[in-house]
Amino acid sequence: MSEREKFIGLDRKVLSVFAQNPSEDFSIKKVYGILSIKDRKVKDIIKAIVVNMARENLLVKKGSQYHLHEKYANKDTSKKHYITGVVDFTKSGKVFVIPDEGQEDIRISSSNASQALNGDRVKVYVFPKRRNRPKEGQIVSIIERKRTQFAGIITKKKDMAIVKCNENELPYVVTIKDFDKNIEDGSKVIIKIKDWKPSSNQPLGEIVKVLGKPGDNDVEMVSILFENDLAVDFPKEVEQEVEKIPDTVTVKDLEGRKDYRDMVTFTIDPKDAKDFDDAVSFKLLDNGNYLIGVHIADVSHYVKIGSTIDQEAYKRATSVYLVDRTIPMLPEKLCNQVCSLRENEDSLTYSVVFEFTPKGEVVDYTIDKSVIRSNKRFTYEQAQAIIEASEYNTAYQPSEYSTQIVLLWKIAKILRDNRFKRGALNFSSPEFRFDLDENKKPIAVHLVEDNESHWMIEEYMLLANRVIAQTIGKVDKKPAKTFVYRVHDEPNPEKVETFKTFAQKLGYKISNSSREKLVASYNDLFDKVKGLSQETLISNIALRTMSKAYYSTDNIGHYGLAFDYYTHFTSPIRRYPDLMVHRLLYDYLIDKKPSADKDFYEQCCKHCSDMEKLAADAEHESVKYKQAEFLMDKQGQVFDGEVSGVSKWGIYVMIDENKCEGLVRMASMTDDFYMLDEDNYQIIGEHYGKTYQLGQKVKIRVESVNMLKKQINFVLVEG
């Protein structure tokens, strides 16, 4: 650690002494004692710090003593000096706390981070703001751990064992005292923290599960699920309850349902999909208008509130999609059979049926419990071929249901164009998927096409979600009933400014003087980079400027979609909030019940938002593992890439060909001594001034791969 780094660390500690005791006077000698400083050199630094703070009017000198200036002092520390928030470890190695109340992020030095881990909810003491410095603070307590379980490798000692976990998730060695002595040394295990004394860097843990040999695909995938507190198998009592559900629709099931079985109806999904939870239908009316239906699996008919199945579904809250497997929210019999809208089978649904003019205007709509019969199961590729043949091939010959698909696409195109005219953001981050062999080893990476057939289904799902939310939430005079909304707040202005600076350095202009100009700038940028090597990088960074969408009973609208009302209604097989929406719709529209308990549903919303984040983290970790596995046999090979991140450790590079990302460590860059220039998204050579900036094209060689740590190291190659 340099003298400057020591000084910065002491600077914060000295300030915290005065700030946490705003009404007290302290001599410099007393400050030494509070901070347990005995080293003469360090005492001299502290004395200089105190004197400098007095010059800056942070402190007031009174004889030989000092106290915090009154403009920074606030005796009611419970209101202003303490905040709660979530810990965020950035890729550059810095630690921030994101406040719950949407304030400026609080920077935390490593010496003030206590034992907080990434994602923990914490209480932070905020230091008085200093001129030209970011907000800084000290974590004083951990309110809630994001993770309670960690995966690691066990090393057995004589009468104890230690477990080393991934240092990015738990950078401490865990001591295990009581464990099964038959566990094979070097096994991968899941541990839980039992005790962690504030003064200790070695927590005490217990073994929850023995997974097996490190590096085995199933072991690694299951460990990702366990680490994120995600369920793997369904409890026996859930499976037993599912077996009692009938396989087919009965006459009694049809009571009170609108019958749409005479409408041409089909599903359009990925070719490997089995859980078809949405279908669309089309009918030409005598007046020349179109009757277009959005039909969603009626999971609520089978999953009753409070049942064992329901409790497990709520606990999971979402299906989890790892690279090589899906962990469903509902047991297979429900998600892939009973609830799935399969071809040529009667299916129970919740339907929103719209009457459109040929110009794409909605004349009327109805919401009903219903029954449908899917005439055809299309893949996205099949539907896309029909749309392309119609639009680009003059020799186009209509095939079965192609007329309906083409007309559905024409209306969807109008809906899409109108949505962007209203100010929707056109985020289009390319998605890459792995091709796996029979042993689930990645053998290729390919781009997932996001084309007209995807857009068509997306537009009808967006419309149904918006109309459902409007039906319940948009009321005159009287208060709206409690409902579950999908909300998206405005972007953080500071993050937008940072992105604006970044984009300008790459030659793109961002205007953020108004919402309209910002959205127009973003959409123009996405159009310009589409198909370029920079597309993934720029889209990902732009996405980080946005707030996270979440579930809430308080409707604030959806910024990204430019909708005043929005919910999730269309995927109840894989999302629990959709199931809640179905139940509330039935209560309000059919049973005419009063408003539901807001506090109860808000708690449910928070749980579902939290579980969505855990599932996304697990999915990301599985991708990182498969990227490492994909490059394992490519060590020594050279690839073209692009700088995708900068940090105090080096530069991150994303390979153009396969989008795998690795780190070029500064230690491997021996042509100069490089320093991080964070403000300009680059590192600079101290002696020769050579720079490596975000977005810069480079050549790299795959130097090493650590699959267990999901780490990939590159070295730069000239030329």
Structure description:
With 719 residues, this protein is of the alpha+beta class. It contains 16 helices and 34 strands. The strands form nine sheets. Strands 14-21-20-17-16-15-22 form a seven-stranded mixed sheet. Strands 4-5-6-8-7 form a five-stranded mixed barrel. A five-stranded mixed β-barrel has the order 9-10-11-13-12. Strand 5 (95-99) and strand 6 form a beta hairpin. The relative contact order is 0.08. Residues 1-8 and 75-79 have low confidence and may be disordered.
**Unreliable residue stretches:** 1-8, 75-79
Put simply, the count of helices is 16
Rg, alpha carbons: 29 Å
Sheet with most strands: 7 strands, mixed
Helical percentage: 25-40%
Counting helices, strands and paired strands, the structural category is: alpha+beta
End-to-end distance: 35 Å
Number of strands: 34
What is the strand content?
25-35%
Q: Going across the major beta sheet, what is the strand order?
A: 14-21-20-17-16-15-22
Task: Give the integer mean of the pLDDT values.
Answer: 89
Per the principal axes of the C-alpha atoms, what is the gross shape? globular
